[in-house]
Automatic annotation (TrEMBL):
Residues 1-18 form the signal peptide. This is Copper acquisition factor BIM1-like domain-containing protein. Residues 153-177 are annotated as: Disordered. CDD domains: LPMO_auxiliary-like. InterPro entries: BIM1-like, BIM1-like_dom. It comes from Lobosporangium transversale. It is a lipid-anchor.
């Protein structure tokens, strides 16, 4: 009886979580009920733009499914139409899969992606397929060579590994794995925390 109720609980919570969030760059908007609505999860109006670097960018999502396929499309312009997103989807900027729930940092290097140039307004569309219907999220950005406000610390992988990603825009020879960057950062943070604890002890 107890086992049954726990199983029921797990089922219910996984159903409630079977969507995903776009955690970075900032989403145009999230309404879980409307996530299946293309092209931007029910948000038709362009939101606040954030800077997105042309090289070594990434997108961080939080997945409710254990497994999901993710395609990332880039539509250019100040207010891309549904047709613009449809056209962009014929050449995704990235295709990847995640094999664990929670946070995944998906590399998105646009430095050699068609149409991507410095100071270009664009909308990044994330199409997430966890086995039911595709779910949509968008981020309105300005693509720039130098993006000081792009927060590298938002690249988070809950399994500690970088998801398998095919990124036609990326140059594999000069793209360090996000995991490597992350572990260096974690080591640094740990060292800083120890130094602080030592300082406090006196
Ligand atoms: C890009 O979008 C912003 C508003 O989000 C707008 O102010 C700016 O003029 C646009 N840039 C171009 C080149 O149209």
């Amino acid at each position: 009886m107890k086992a049954l109720s726990i199983a029921t609980l797990l089922l219910c919570s996984s159903a409630a979580m079977a969507h995903y969030t776009l955690d970075y760059p900032p989403t145009r908007g999230l309404n879980e009920d409307n996530e299946p609505i293309a092209p931007c999860g029910g948000f038709a109006t362009v939101g606040q733009r954030s800077q997105f670097p042309l090289s070594k960018g990434f997108v961080t999502i939080n997945s409710g499914h254990v497994k999901a396929e993710i395609k990332i499309n880039v539509a250019y312009g100040n207010n891309p139409s549904e047709a613009d997103f449809t056209a962009a989807a014929s050449t995704p900027a990235s295709s990847s899969s995640v094999n664990h729930p929670g946070s995944s940092c998906l590399p998105l290097d646009l430095s050699s992606f068609k149409g991507a140039a410095d100071n270009t307004n664009a909308t990044i569309q994330i199409v997430y397929n966890g086995g039911d219907s595709p779910l949509y999220q968008c981020a309105d950005v300005i693509l720039v060579n130098s993006a000081p406000s792009f927060d590298q610390s938002k690249c988070v992988n809950d399994d500690g590994k970088t998801p398998s990603t095919t990124n036609p825009g990326a140059n594999p020879s000069n793209t360090p794995s996000a995991g490597a960057v992350l572990s260096v950062k974690n080591a640094f943070t740990a060292a800083a925390a120890m130094a602080m604890a030592a300082a406090l002890a006196f």
